[in-house]
Design goal:
Pfam family, one: Tmp39
Subcellular location: Membrane
Helix content: 55-70%
Membrane topology: Multi-pass membrane protein
Strand content: 5-15%
Number of strands: 8
Protein name: Transmembrane protein 39A
Keywords: Membrane, Transmembrane, Transmembrane helix
Number of helices: 13
Structural class: alpha+beta
Strand order of the largest sheet: 3-7-6-4
């Protein structure tokens, strides 16, 4: 009932604004960073356990076989500690940050957060270095290199920035100087303005923020799947026999599940509400041919907010404004893509995510039907449970945003 009351309020707001119709997404519950990182640690740790189960399970029911259900004595627990340390890094950082944020004064927070990152980085580095040093005497040095392959990739892309390694939300922060004082500006916040330069600058920041979040989601999902699924295979003894196809299939399943969970958390509905408003201010242009010579044609200017239906000439081409407000540069592909995606996120983003999750669920159901071993059924049931939760959240977001943006589209026509 509250949802339909919200839709009625949206209609009233749109009727009261004839210049630039818009709606504001409702406040929706979203897990906090500590809760979400805790769930990610549980899933990553349990995925690691399931991978070890796939590798070291035993046929204990046969005569002259192992007395236990799986061969735990073959597992190198130093490798397990290394994997768990990588899984827990963000959760520990978020927990320490939350405690200090509650206790420390706000004007010292910038230096305190820097100290926390330095402290956690040093402790993690010492722990990983100690474990790698002990493992060096057990295995070949080339195998030890597999421990740090994702970290090397991180350093190649981000350099020595510790922020993205511990906190994904810091990629939306940008330090600016106002009256000689450093302030934190969030690049994903929308500023309602009619200044064309500010709108284009805001769109550029939001585009970079969206791409940075997507990069972080892909990196984090690969990072977790690598340590949960691939690294246990590197340290398997040569005489251990396991199902290669099933063990290798574990990697894309975990990476896909991790990616969907990260998308739901770091791409909430409120985030796309800001992107949608920016896209409405940006507008779009359509290249046309001059059929009626008597129509007025203007030279495009970056200082003007062009109304719908305006004809402008830019770079020897003729364009027609199709948005309610148009400040985009005609012919610029980046602005076209931004408007196409975020003018209606329900049809682009949420529908795509829902389609991917439904397809993934079909694959999991097929794999569950053809499975007959107990650990396969146990593993698939666990993965399906998490994907059911993310699928329900995605479908709810799609249903809600589809109704809202449908009303907005009817208003603009």
């Amino acid at each position: 009932m509250e949802f339909f009351n919200f839709l009625a309020d949206c209609l009233k707001k749109m009727k009261s604004d004839d210049t630039l119709p818009r709606v504001t997404s409702p406040r929706m519950y979203n897990d906090g960073n500590i809760t979400f990182e805790g769930l990610m640690v549980i899933f990553a740790s349990f995925s690691t356990y399931l991978q070890y189960l796939n590798i070291y399970k035993s046929v204990w029911w046969l005569p002259n076989s192992n007395y236990a259900s799986w061969k735990m004595h073959l597992i190198d627990y130093q490798v397990v500690v290394f994997i768990l340390a990588m899984h827990c890094r963000r959760f520990i950082y978020c927990l320490i940050t939350w405690v200090f944020h509650m206790l420390c004064p706000q004007h010292y927070w910038k230096f305190i957060r820097l100290f926390i990152r330095l402290f956690v980085s040093v402790i993690l580095f010492l722990l990983l270095a100690l474990l790698a040093f002990d493992l060096y005497f057990k295995y070949d040095y080339l195998i030890i290199m597999y421990l740090f392959m994702p970290i090397i990739g991180y350093l190649c892309y981000y350099g020595f920035k510790a922020c993205p390694f511990f906190d994904m939300m810091c990629i939306s922060e940008k330090e600016i100087i106002i009256n000689g004082k450093p302030l934190i500006q969030y690049t994903n916040m929308h500023i309602c303005t009619s200044n064309p330069k500010i709108i284009r600058s805001e769109v550029e920041n939001m585009r970079d923020d969206f791409n940075n979040r997507l990069t972080q989601i892909l990196f984090s999902s690969f990072f977790s799947a690598y340590y949960a699924c691939f690294l246990p295979l590197v340290f398997v003894q040569t005489y251990v026999v396991y199902e290669e196809h099933w063990v290798l299939m574990h990697f894309p399943f975990v990476m896909m599940t991790m990616g969907m969970m990260l998308c739901i958390h770091y791409y909430p509905v409120k985030y796309f509400d800001h992107l949608h408003k920016a896209a409405m201010h940006l507008g779009r242009w359509k290249r046309v041919k001059l059929d009626r010579p008597h129509l007025p044609i203007h030279l495009w200017s970056e200082e003007v907010v062009w109304q719908q239906g305006s004809l402008v000439r830019h770079n020897q081409c003729l364009y027609k404004a199709e948005g309610v407000s148009n400040v985009a540069e005609p012919g610029k592909n980046a602005d076209k893509v931004f408007y196409r995606i975020f003018s209606n996120p329900s049809e682009t983003v949420f529908f795509t995510l829902a389609s991917m999750q439904v397809s993934f669920m079909i694959v999991l159901i097929i794999a569950l039907v053809i499975s007959f071993q107990w650990h396969h059924i146990f593993y698939l049931s666990f993965v399906m449970l998490l994907n059911y939760v993310t699928l329900c959240k995605t479908l709810f977001n799609y249903r809600m945003t589809a109704k809202i943006y449908k009303l907005l589209k009817e208003k603009t026509q």
